[in-house]
Design brief:
The complex is a heterodimer of chains A (253) and B (357). Chain A is α/β, with parallel strands linked by helices and 253 residues long. Chain A has a single domain, classed as P-loop containing nucleotide triphosphate hydrolases (Rossmann fold, 3-Layer(aba) Sandwich). Helix content of chain A is 34%, strand content 28%. Chain B contains 14 helices and 5 strands. The chains are: A alpha/beta (253), B mainly alpha (357).
Chain lengths: 253, 357
């Protein structure tokens, strides 16, 4: 495969996705492509179907119709764990970190490396976890003093960084972020924006769900707008204004 | 959060430090006080008695440590211990007189363990699979194990008629006599009855058993994946699940582990007092939860250590012993332990509250 085709093949392609809950059609015939190194914002009012769409891509919901392809191969996922195993990492708003444990443990949670002591006692290899954590944080240009502190003692931005580092360490092919800056102050929002750009520079595509226009315009290359379960816009961020987006979201012309 | 976040973090660190070391300081202060004020407190004989007397409490409290770190509680452990003690005693009595002591003990332990495991398995399934709150599930098991223990024993302690059993429960690894010298495992032969009072034993068997179990419990909790998952489940169960930790399976194992320690404690009771009583572990609920919480575990889950629990158990045991030596009515012990457990929980809550802000 030559470089030309690699860049042109989308990392993720979804076609005709449908999800119904009883009589309600939450997502109706939505298709999208995500390319390598692309940051795509998913915008829309509450109840527009953003979360439902994302949950189908991250393995939480099984679509009632449509197909999902990862790097050209059709995939079906029975659980978020299967999605993760395929390289689709979702960072939820609540980050899903264990606040009582340190950053290194959180990065490796559920997949802890072990080594044998005296050939019998299988223990968690904390040294390896620390070394690898340092490597991935360095790669993302994140500085966290003392990785052995519990997450509880870290700032919101540092927590977000740990969650992103966890996703990246496991070789995410696609990172989905749900309202990544919702609980953060302005300086920390900027840090998250920088992190997204770092991911982009390493060719990892990112889908961001956000209400925050600043987020969207700070990082997104492309904006997909949802309204009442349908995709009503797919625009380049450089070519639209806040007002254009809002009109698309609420359906005014 | 925001501007004053630095201040909040350093306040955490401060509270964390306090909650980590206050138990050590408290223990040290108590030992100092009783050593100075109580005659015969600081002697090899008495200190070993303290350790031997706390063996049962400490063993059950190790299981309770895992349970509380996982965010639960096991109210049933004390009565599961009593049930196992009655069953082990009955089994040991039923064996032929010619059976070697080690086989008698192993058989008693085996059947006691089997019974306790059923209780632990039921607790675990109720909590992990059927989402019954740990408080309710183990409160139910509290009643069930209590009833079974009393039914099987007819409400009376079951004396064990096995020769050599008391030796295991009350013996020492080493003996020293000022005129005869050292001897290993058994007291020196040919001592007159009157001379026995000069004999000192070192390293009681039950203390050795307790220390070995402590070491294992500590290593498993602090070093293995299972231990780490116990902390993760107590810290954020949802996150543990999303990270792919088999949470339900881990929880069942944790409650079975608690039952395992309860059965072993039942056996220690058997050999120490050469009987099995359904209410042998009646006092254990207050004492084990106190030991674990004094030791720095959080009733919200996610924090605690085996070493901390050992400190907690030491505090309770030193307190009980010291009060007797000071000729204070021993019933004061319940009040003192009650107060200490409340203080420990207050510290824990203050810490949790700061973490929220």
């Amino acid at each position: 495969m030559d470089a030309q085709t690699t860049t042109h093949e989308p990392v993720l392609r979804a076609t005709g996705l449908v999800k119904r809950f009883g009589g309600l059609t939450a997502v109706n015939d939505v298709s999208l492509d995500i390319h390598p190194g692309e940051v795509v914002a998913l915008a829309g009012d509450n109840g527009a179907g953003k979360s439902t769409l994302i949950k189908m891509i991250s393995g939480v919901y099984r679509p009632d119709g449509g197909h999902i392809y990862l790097e050209g191969k059709e995939i079906t996922m029975a659980s978020p764990l299967e999605a993760r195993a395929l390289g689709i990492e979702t960072i939820y708003q609540d980050l899903a970190l264990c606040e009582n444990l340190d950053a290194t443990v959180n990065i490796f949670l559920g997949r802890e490396p072990t080594k044998r002591l005296f050939g019998i006692f299988k223990q968690v290899d904390r040294g390896h976890m620390l070394a690898e954590s340092n490597k991935v944080l360095e790669r993302l240009d994140i500085k966290i003093p003392n990785l052995r502190r519990p997450i509880r003692q870290m700032s919101g931005g540092q927590r977000q960084a740990v969650a992103i580092a966890r996703a990246v360490y496991w070789n995410a092919r696609l990172v989905i972020m749900d309202e990544p800056t919702a609980a953060l102050g302005v300086p920390e929002q900027r840090k998250v924006h920088e992190l997204v750009k770092t991911l982009k520079s390493q060719n990892v595509p990112v889908i961001i769900i956000s209400h925050n226009m600043q987020d969207i315009f700070a990082v997104a290359d492309r904006i997909i707008v949802m309204r009442r379960g349908q995709k009503v816009g797919d625009v380049r961020a450089a070519e639209v204004t806040d007002d254009d987006l809002v009109s698309l979201m609420v359906g005014a012309t | 959060m925001g501007v004053d976040s630095h201040q909040t973090y350093s306040r955490h660190a401060w509270l964390d430090t306090i909650s980590r070391i206050w138990a050590w300081l408290f223990l040290l202060a108590m030992v100092l006080f009783f050593s100075l004020a109580g005659e015969g407190f600081f002697t090899a004989f008495n200190l070993q008695a303290i350790l031997a007397n706390m063996a049962i409490l400490t063993i059950i409290a190790m299981g309770q440590t895992y349970v509380i770190i996982s965010g639960g509680i096991d109210l049933s452990a004390g009565w599961v211990m009593g049930m196992a003690a009655v069953i082990s005693a009955t089994v040991m009595n039923s064996l032929p007189e010619t059976t070697p002591v080690w086989l008698v003990v192993l058989s008693g332990l085996g059947v006691g363990l089997a019974a306790a495991w059923i209780a632990g398995l039921v607790n675990g399934i109720l909590i992990a699979r059927l989402n019954v709150p740990p408080f309710i599930a183990t409160l139910g098991m509290f009643g069930i194990a209590r009833g079974i223990g009393f039914l099987l024993s007819g409400g009376m302690p079951v004396p064990i008629y096995v020769k050599g059993l008391g030796f295991l429960g009350n013996g020492f690894l080493l003996y020293y006599h000022p005129t005869v010298g050292w001897s290993f495992l058994t007291p020196p032969a040919g001592l007159a009855q009157a001379d026995l009072r000069n004999l000192t034993g070192y390293f009681p068997f039950v203390v050795i058993v307790m220390l070995v179990l402590l070491l294992i419990a500590h290593l498993v909790l602090s070093r293995t994946q299972f231990g780490l998952h116990t902390y993760a489940i107590g810290g954020n169960k949802e996150a543990a699940m999303r990270a792919g930790i088999p949470v339900a399976r881990r929880l069942v194992t944790i409650y079975m582990l608690s039952a395992t320690f309860a059965a072993i404690a039942g056996l220690v009771y058997n050999v120490r007092f050469t009987n099995g009583a359904a209410n042998a572990g009646e006092a254990m609920l207050l004492d084990t939860v106190a030991a674990v919480v004094i030791g720095g575990a959080s009733l919200f889950g996610g924090a605690g250590t085996v070493i901390g629990t050992l400190i907690g158990a030491l505090i309770i045991s030193v307190l009980a012993n010291g009060l007797v030596i000071m000729r204070v009515n021993p019933f004061w012990q319940f009040i003192a332990v009650g107060i200490v457990i409340i203080i420990a929980v207050l510290i824990d809550q203050a810490r949790a509250q700061f973490a929220q802000e």
